[in-house]
Every structure is written in structure tokens, then in C-alpha cells.
Amino acid sequence: MKLTEREQDGVIVLEPKGKIMGGPDASLLHDKLYEFIEQDKKKFVVDLKDVEWMNSTGLGIIISGFTTLRNSDGKLKLANVTEKIQSLLVITKLQGVFEAFDSVDEAIQSFNE
Amino acid sequence: MKEPVIKGNTIIVPSSLEYLTNIDDFIEGILRGFGTDDSAIADIAISVSELVNNSVSHGNKASEDKTVSVSIDKKGSDVVIVIEDQGDGFDPEEISNPLDEANLLKDSGRGIFIVKSLMDSLEVNKTETGTSIIIKKAIA
User: What ipTM was reported for this prediction?
Assistant: First the structure.
């Protein structure tokens, strides 16, 4: 897995690429997310466009970030959820937990609504 | 970092999550050789990654002196995968339901549930040296 990050209109956009399966690669996503949270960033979008699949480790990282932010008036949203990840969200009943958007721009725009 | 040992359709690695990618590459290569479609490859690869995570972290308790082996075969229309570690095993029926309201937002505890959802069967057996987990999935 590779990870890039950027800030757009005050929103941190994290863009993992590849497979999120645990081990050092998954730690990279966790550590980067929490690095920004510790900088008091409150608005996050995780762009899943280039994530081939993730397992429960990947889901756990996103849930952990989501709940940490929610408890401090922040928000983590998803963009470009692929079919495979959507099916995992359905299986685990998490599809109703996350706000998900068809594009990063739509996700960012939603913070202003 | 030691090199994984590959013998036919089996890969043996030290018990460390650093080898997840080696196992994934190995499994995907064999599944492509079986003519498996992308969706089934992902389901099987996710399941193997869950079980290897489990074997390393819980079974072998992250001891790199121990090993995890993953074997893959095709029997009829079924892909059969055996994951072995040196741990004490677990009862898949005794694992908390991650769909319960109290567990829904926990950041762990979904792995075995996901495997049971994506695969056709999951069997956990005690062996002389540890635990053997067998998962199966029919492919087209």
C-alpha cells in the first residue's frame, strides 16, 4: 500500500493505494491519520478510489479515526468507495455509519452544508 | 528479514505481519493460475490475510521464532486453503458478534466474521504442533 495526503479547502484528503491488509503498510495509514488528528485537524476525507481491497485491519483504522474525530467535533468521510469495499461495509453493517460520496470534491463540499 | 520458503503450493514464513504481502502475492499468483475471477481472488485474499493476521498476532503471539504456513489447492470446483500456526487455536463460534450494537464501532474483532461471510466454509482443527485452519470457496 502507498499513501499520499493533501489538504484541500481545509480538509485533509488521504489517498491510500493498493491493499490495506495489516502490517507496516496499514500502520502507515493509521499513523498519518493520527498525526493530523494530533495537529487538531477536524475534517478528513479518505479517498478509496485506488484501494483494491481492505480487510478488518483497514476497516478498524478508519473506524478508529472516525470515532476519535467524532468525539472531538471532527468528521471523517469516505469518497469513491469501490464495489468490493462497499460489500464489506454492508457485511459488517458499517455502510450506515460512514458518510460516503461519489467524489472527493463532493465529500469536501459536504463539509460546508 | 528471512526469505519465505516456498514448496509447491505452500508458503512458509516467519510469524510476522511483514510477510503478509509475500503471502498475498503467492496466493494471488496461484489463484490466477486456477483461472479465478478478480472478485473471488479478492474474497479469498482478504480471508487469508485475516487468518494470517490472526495466526501471527493471536496464535503465535507475534513470536518470529514461530512460523505460519499457507497451502492452497483446488479440489473439484473448490479452492481449499490451509493455514497452520503453532498456537492454541480458537472456537469460531465463541467469537463476539461484531454486528451487535455494543461492538459495531469497535476497531477490531471483525476478522473471523468477515472470513465466514466471504468463504463457503471455515474449519479450525488442533494439530500436534498447533492449529490448522481450513477455508474453502467454490470458484467458477
Answer: 0.94
Query: Over the stretch A50-77, which tens digit does the pLDDT of each residue have?
Result: 999 999 999 999 999 999 999 999 999 9
Q: Are B84 and B132 in contact (CB under 8 A)?
A: yes
Split into its structural domains, chain A has a count of 1
Residue A72, domain extent: 2-110
Q: Nine-digit cell at B105?
A: 464501532
Closest Cβ opposite residue B18 in set A24, A59, A91 = A24
Is the distance from CB of A48 to CB of A16 less than 8 angstroms?
Answer: yes
Give the whole-angstrom CA distance, residue A7 versus residue B85. Answer: 43
Tell me if chain B has a CB within 8 Å of the CB of A96: no
CATH of residue A44's domain is 3.30.750.24
> In whole angstroms, what separates CA B84 from the centre of its chain?
9
Measure the CA–CA gap between A35 and A37, rounded to whole angstroms. 6
B46:A92 CB<8 A: no
| Bridge partners (DSSP) listed for residue A8 | A11
B105, A97: Cβ pair inside 8 Å? yes
